[in-house]
Write a structure and sequence with these properties.
The chain has 6 helices and 3 strands, in the order ααββααβαα. It is α+β, with helices and mostly antiparallel strands. The chain starts with 13 loop residues before the first helix and ends in a 14-residue tail after the last helix.
Length: about 140
């Protein structure tokens, strides 16, 4: 009997996605309400972009970004890491999970990748390639599909 529980070949399971979204919403609410007893963290506006969970749901990787570049990403992650235990306690009280997941904070690079993709699409060489008709779109007799 093969053990496919921890295989990630097909991506995260529906349960991992659902729990990750619940954790993301709850953390965003806790940070928005400034429920944490750290004035430095409460002054920061932090966006929780995504939460990915391990297959056993015991580790949650939280991707965060300070809103509008108000503080450095490293400072926001350090403040969140300092208050990890209190955030985990808030999560466990608001969610009905068997285990409160261990929280790991990472910078959210989605916007950086989006900017890089936009820059690549604006490149004149790429624009020329996109405007040119594909050879696959025409049949041997010259008619288009």
């Amino acid at each position: 009997m093969s053990n496919k529980r921890f295989s990630s070949a097909s991506g995260p399971s529906q349960r991992q996605l659902r729990v990750g979204e619940l954790i993301r919403r709850t953390l965003a609410d806790v940070l928005n309400r400034a429920d944490i007893h750290d004035p430095e963290l409460n002054r920061m506006s932090i966006t929780v972009g995504e939460v990915s969970c391990s297959p056993d749901l015991k580790v949650a990787t939280v991707y965060v970004m300070p809103l509008m570049g108000s503080v450095a990403v490293e400072d926001a992650i350090a403040a969140l890491a300092r208050n990890k235990h209190e955030l985990r306690h808030r999560l466990s009280s608001e969610l009905t999970l068997k285990y409160a997941p261990d929280l790991r904070f990472r910078p959210d690079q989605t916007f950086d990748r989006l900017d890089e993709t936009r820059r690549l699409f604006a490149d004149p060489t790429v624009q020329r390639d996109l405007a040119a008709p594909d050879e696959d779109d025409t049949e041997d007799d010259g008619a288009t599909k």
